[in-house]
Amino acid sequence: MRRLSALRDLIEGWQSLTDRVQDAIELVEMAEEEGDEASLAELAEEAQDLEREIDQQELMLALSGEFDDRDAILSIHAGEGGTEAQDWAEMLLRMYLRWAEKKGFKTTILDRMPGEEAGIKSATVEVKGPYAYGYLKGEKGNHRLVRISPFDSGARRHTSFAKVEVMPVLDDDIKIDIHPKDIKMDVFLSGGAGGQNVQKNATAVRLTHIPTGIVVTCQNERSQTQNRETAMKILKSRLYQMELEKKQAREAALRGKYVKPGFGTRIRNYVLHPYQMVKDERTGYETGNAQAVLDGELDPFIDAWLKMQIGKGEAVTGVEATDH
Asked: How much is the average pLDDT of 77-96?
């Protein structure tokens, strides 16, 4: 029923645009016959509005995957490099939280492991909103930062990496077999803000899936049962994502080209020194306003990647965005 409702909304959107385009064409013909310049000027503005809406509707064609309309689980992991990489991971976390806020999506930090001196070693966030997974799925991969390190007394330039994982939130009707004997569960004290908020009981949960080695932790909820349920939801999504990547690798191998999934793919460069630029390695889309991107202005990059999925990548490859 959810799938049927989504398809109905998509079709009705295209039908509405078709009617508006037809009406506009008829009005233009009438205005040209009567020499009505004022009406033609208004219809020119209507044409621009229609063009923008059609472009947005075309993006929805790239959001037609089986789970694209689901909520998403986004994880960020600092790469090698200690404090520098952990600070970069926290910058990415802030970027995605800001992006979600701009989209009107709800976010919940399910797990957060702080760094030794600054930043985070890892974080897992649930993003709730229409097509959250569809929009975020292209963010999976390595993100590279080049800047003058604020942690280097010599003010030298450093390169840092962080890995982003994106998985759909699966409903209970999606069958991912997880045998109880394959799960090892550890409980520990949740990290609190101090005072009355510190948990005196072991409520945080760590699940280890023995066959794959996947480890999931959750300490957001105030009860062990709730944390376990949330951790199982994340584990289920990660197992699905692993199977999906295996399938994609097999298909790529059959096509004669093997693409290594996961950590090996650098998707985007963020340069803060000696100049400012953010560039996507896949689409070629770039902008000189790096700070805006780090403040959550990700839609141009996401839209460029989505357009590439429906064969419109030539429209965005090599485009340099202006600051506005």
From this structure: 93
Radius of gyration of the chain (CA): 23
What is the rounded CA–CA span in Å between residue 276 and residue 287? 8
pLDDT at 316: 39
Tokens of 7: 């398809």
Instruction: Kindly provide the residue ranges of all beta strands, DSSP E only, lying in 12-140, ordered along the sequence.
Output: 72-78, 106-114, 120-128
Spatial contact of 115 and 78, defined as CB atoms under 8 Å apart: yes
Which of 146, 138, 142 is closest to 283 using CA atoms? 138
CA distances from 295 to 93, 129, 290, 291 (A): 11, 19, 9, 6
Find which of 54-58, 88-92, 111-115 is predicted with most confidence, using mean pLDDT.
88-92
Q: Which residues contact 121 (CB under 8 A, 6 or more apart)?
A: 77, 78, 86, 89, 113, 114, 115
Q: Rounded to whole angstroms, what are the CA distances from 190 to 66, 74, 115, 208, 213?
A: 35, 21, 16, 18, 23
Give the helix ranges, DSSP H, for 192-277.
224-254
Reported as type and span, the H/E element at residue 9 is helix 2-34
Name the band, by pLDDT with cuts 50, 70 and 90, for residue 104.
Answer: very high
- Please report the pLDDT score of residue 324 as a whole number: 30
Maximum CA extent, the chain: 81
Cα gap 15→285, rounded to integer Å:
31
Which two tokens mark 21?
């385009």
Position 132 pLDDT exceeds 90:
yes
55 pLDDT above the threshold of 70: yes
DSSP state of 151: T
pTM for the whole structure: 0.71
Q: Which two tokens stand for residue 83?
A: 């404090």
Measured CA distances, 53 to 18, 50, 232, 292 (Å): 11, 5, 39, 24
Q: What mean pLDDT do residues 108-134 have? A: 93
